Automatic annotation (TrEMBL):
The keyword Nucleotide-binding does not apply. It comes from the Bacteria. InterPro entries: ScpA. It holds the Pfam family SMC_ScpA. It comes from Caproicibacterium argilliputei. Coiled coil: none annotated. This is Segregation and condensation protein A. Keywords: Chromosome partition. GO terms for biological process: chromosome segregation.
Amino acid sequence: MEKLTYKLDTFEGPLDLLLYLIRKNKLNICDIPIAKVLDQYMEQIDAAREQNLDISSEFLEMAARLVYMKTVYLLPKHEEADTLRAELSGQLLEYEACRQVAALLGEEFQMDSFTREPAAFPPDTTYRRPISAQQLLQAYSDAAGRRAVPPPTQASFSAIMAHRVVSVASQIIYVLRRLWTDRRISYRTLFVHKKDRSEIVATFLAVLELVKGKRVRVEGDTENPTVELLKAGERKCKRKH
């Protein structure tokens, strides 16, 4: 893929940056190659950091999201990864449509244009979505075979609600933010305020995912290991070796 040269602050958000990368490289927005897009996305984040530009949390959250999607694709089954990629493609398609509408409105309405109150139109509830006979048959079979199931009791949720679930993606964001100011920190400091078992396990898995994705490096002895954020150049050299 061609290397891009532009400043991060020219984009309104992470979706804007992703859409530019996809259009620049003529990729299929419905079948995004996550690994290729992630590499270029992180190059822009690193370039902005080297220029001392202020990176909003939206770009870091999208970076963590892409890292997580890439790691999920390493698993034997890709159902979750395909679902996450479909959600991202849908967001990009909606964002692109909004941009096109905004551009049309910008051409239509200028400072000297005349505006009026919107006219009242009755809502159109006509169903126009194309549907096949097979889909109708499947919908009927699902409805006819559905049994009356009583609503779940409060006791059935007690086991779930008793434990707080902490996602690995949220802890990836946490680790990246800790390393954003100081590129190297003590490994043990990542767990100082982690008292919940779910948080500790999720943070540990987040470090493993970042090491696997060549975003960070863990060094030192067993007594005082450190975690270091890798630059884009270091990651490329590590891949060649």
